[in-house]
Amino acid sequence: MKVIRGTIVSEGEGGVYGERMMNGCRVWDPHRSKLPAAILNGAPLDLTADMRVLYMGAANGTTVSHVADYVETIYAIEFAPRPMQDLIEVARRRPNIVPIMADVNRPEVYGCFVELVDMIYQDVAQPNQADILRKNLPFLKDGGIAVLMLKARSVDVRKPTEEIAEETCAALREMGLTILWTGTLNPYHRDHMAILCMKE
């Protein structure tokens, strides 16, 4: 990951969502995107030019566009029609983005479009976040990394974020995943935790 004066940036064409530029690079705002927030909070994560990524919960393509600046290919899954329109426009300017309109609970629908990937990035605010990852694990290579952005209030509004994170980690271990790192996304995103795990 490229850092300029303590700020995470990506090298790519600007003007995707009005982002600032710094030394010819796009500023990756941790208040707008959870991935740089996790990295700034200590997540041991890097993106490299030979990586293929499955991104679930692509939304308008803000984070997708930055990830695409780093990696070889990104399969971007989004279900809602309105943000999908924005995602398609982002993909027009970055040919390594493959936009797919589908439900992440039904990976069999888009399985024919997705190769084995080095990383799964999941940012889907649904109660069954761990189960969604389980369903999509067949796309992840052995030794690959899964990144789960856990929105605690989408799982259970009655429990504290830390308790939900512990329960989620236990579920991930039952899937055979090794937990590499967990951490809060404060102060950038409230009630969110990032969980990094590896498929052995």
Number of strands: 11
Return the CATH class. Answer: Alpha Beta
How many domains comprise the coordinates? 1
What's the architecture in CATH terms?
A: 3-Layer(aba) Sandwich
List keywords for this structure.
about 200 residues, alpha/beta, four-stranded antiparallel β-sheet, seven-stranded mixed β-sheet, Rossmann fold
Describe this structure in words.
With about 200 residues, the protein is α/β, with parallel strands linked by helices. About 30% of the residues lie in helices and about 30% in strands. The mean pLDDT is about 95. The protein starts with a strand and ends with a strand. The strands form two sheets. Strands 7-6-5-8-9-11-10 form a seven-stranded mixed beta sheet, with helices on both faces. Strands 1-2-4-3 form a four-stranded antiparallel beta sheet. The longest helix is centred in the C-terminal third of the chain and has 14 residues. The protein has one domain: Vaccinia Virus protein VP39 (Rossmann fold), CATH 3.40.50. It holds the Pfam family Fibrillarin.
Task: Produce a short descriptive summary.
This protein has 200 residues and is an alpha/beta fold. Helix content is 28%, strand content 31%.
